[in-house]
What we know:
The chain is of the alpha+beta class. The protein has 14 helices and 22 strands.
Amino acid sequence: MTDPRRPSRRPADAGPAPAESPTGRRVLALDLGSSSVRAVVCDARAEPIPGLLARAGVQPQQDDDGRGELDPDAYVAGLVSCLDQLAEGGALDGVELVATSSQWHSLLAVGPDGVPRSAVLTWLDTRAQPDPGRQPADPDAFHARTGTWVHPLYWTAKVPWLRGQLGAQTPLRFLGLPDYVRAVLLGTDATSASVASGTGLLDLDRQCWDPEALDLAGLAPTAVELPLIDDTPRRLAPRWRDRWPALADAQWTAVLGDGAASNLGSGCAQADAVAVTVGTSAALRVVHGPNVPPPPPTVWRYRVDAERLVSGIAFSGGGVLHAWAVRLLTLGPDTEPTIPPGASGLVSIPLHAGSRPPGSMPPGSGLVAGLSLETSAEDLLAATMEGVALEAARALDVLEKSFGAELDVVLGGGAVHASPWWQRAFAATFDRRVRIADDPEVGARGAAAQALGLDLPRPGPLLGPDPDDAARMATVRARYSRLRDVWGGI
């Protein structure tokens, strides 16, 4: 049901928003990422206000055994330092709403006192392997109901593994990272429908914990070990109101999963558009209403909020592959290829960091074909970046078949925003005009827009494919498809 207190949404095709709303309200948008935590102040149009941004770097602890962890208290401390920095300059004055975009897949255990008993397991952590003997009775029905699979990314596998690691301890409660952050700052660990949908435990239609998923995760049917699902706005706990008086009366709205927030921030709030986001990882997502068929076998589905869902396909390889390539080849961190897309003679399958659900290819599954004694560092860099676009093209085909239409493509995310060459390669690989998101803070903007009840217009800049680039990439795409099918089978 629509909240009567919530402003009506502005249609995506309504054109630019007015210069300022009558209230001139400000929104503090938090972006709880896996490589940084950011706090940015936005205006009533969900536009970041220049200079009013604070950032703290985050460094997950990773090992060759698949560990990918964060320290929960260090993470909260990073966010607190961002808010302190903004408060010192008066940037929080006038903030009425606090909106949050958070990494979608995280898990930690806390004791009855709320103190962490484990590190935060991020989406990078692949150590939890599902028990082959504990699978859904009807996998297709389970996928249709929860939008997920039993997979190391989700709590159906992660909770039993983490419980086993912790051994016989006092009763445990399992939270996502944004739930823990809110427990510290707001005094409640209640989760949102959006965050809950990323656990793999949520019945998407009923918007409550799914009994079969709870059983697979070894959790009590009463869900006493899980947070309450509640999208009600909250306020800061008293001790933090004294620290940040400007936020004392601000309403903290329900947390959005980062993928949903990125779609909203890219202007992709309706089912005729797909957001192609390349940050550290990469994903393609479509926001839509409830009256659509179940997701195809390779497509996940989560909740944006009580009214909308988001379907998509994600990859572990995105900007992290560019960073790997320039480090390996001892190039500058911002190095771009100077050869055109499709000219390297190589085909790169970008599974260096493994595959995301429902795939189960482990880290170390990347492949480069076509190497010769003439291959240059630039060839390898270009092919690595092309591989991300080629994998995305396969996903785009699946989503367009599912929705029965050619989708308007909006290309964004920090990695591709910083790379004109990558934008050119995507346009050539898709062989169509693509819109370029003009703001790297799409997650923060999307969360702010949700809090304000706005649907942002899609970005105007359109990039068409160079015909020669498109012809070369069509040849590479055919080679990629054949090789990818064989490699995936292996």
